[in-house]
């Protein structure tokens, strides 16, 4: 009896959906954000990972828990500025629930408002930065749902004076949630003004790779070009004999081959990277001649060339 009732309800629901009028469909489409360029921004690079704790933010800008995601972004941003000193580089922290860019870039002030009622990005190491962490106190918690998240992201994107920014690097939270969809729905993927691409950061653990694969699938469905994969914490060097130990084997290389993503950068697990970000001094600044920084700079140069190739297409 219960099964019969459920079948009836299912049929009724399907019939209701099929009767959706064109006017209702148009109203629903109007609810979606419009793709608009960001005034003053030429190129956008999303840095994403399916799984938290893989070092994404470090590549963009700590080894324990959530900070490991930010290391990649902070160092990438500063490396971009080093290899292209005449270009303006911006860093947007789109992780509204766990912002960590202020710590890693040593920026704890509240941004000023200019005459156009736009927030002025804070600057350190030549990189323009904006984060929800600069708008709320350390003790505050952003307890928001979908529409509020979308509103916050839009404010960080278009409520900021990003004028004359050649490369805007966006640190996204782990997973494939509202933030990623909001960014994909708001930003033009290609055109004369903005080229958007995504850099995938992951580690070689099985749990991380499974979620990373789903993230890659999401960006492919959204038709956002994948610029490459970064394997974070790929090796660890012995402090006594300098022997390099490969922590997770070659599982990330296998993922790159399966997903037909050619470019792979491997960044070692190194105390200088984590300690530098914890103190607000990226390793690109403190150890500019180190082998780790050479990897970040190579990654920066590769991204510049990749975005140029996307533009030419």
Automatic annotation (TrEMBL):
The keyword Nucleotide-binding applies. Signal peptide: none annotated. One of its GO terms (molecular function) is ATP-dependent FeS chaperone activity. Gene3D superfamilies: P-loop containing nucleotide triphosphate hydrolases. GO terms for cellular component: mitochondrion. One of its GO terms (biological process) is iron-sulfur cluster assembly. It comes from the Eukaryota. CDD domains: Mrp_NBP35. Keywords: 4Fe-4S, ATP-binding, Iron, Iron-sulfur, Metal-binding, Nucleotide-binding. InterPro entries: Mrp/NBP35_ATP-bd, NUBPL-like, P-loop_NTPase, YlxH/NBP35. Belongs to the Mrp/NBP35 ATP-binding proteins family. This is Iron-sulfur protein NUBPL. It comes from Aphis glycines (Soybean aphid). The lineage of its organism: Eukaryota, Metazoa, Ecdysozoa, Arthropoda, Hexapoda.
